[in-house]
Amino acid sequence: MLKSICIVGAGNIGSRHLQALAKVTTSLLIQVVDPSTDSLATAKNRYEEVTKAKAQHKINYLQKLEDVTSPIDIAIIATNSNIRSLVTKRLLDQIPVKYIIFEKILFDKYEQYGEMQKILSEKTIKAWVNCSRRTMPFYKSLRNEVKNQKIQYIVSGSGWGLASNAIHLIDHIALLTDCYDFEVNTTYLDPKLIESKRKGFLELTGTLIVHFKDGSFGSFTCYPTGDAPQIMQVFSEKYRCLTVETEGKSYISKPDSNWTWALETTPMLYQNEMTNQVVSSLFKGGDCILTSFDLSAKLHLSLLEPLLKFLNKNSKEKFGSYPFT
Question: Which residue, 129, 146, 132, 147, is CA-closest to 78?
Answer without folding.
Answer: 129
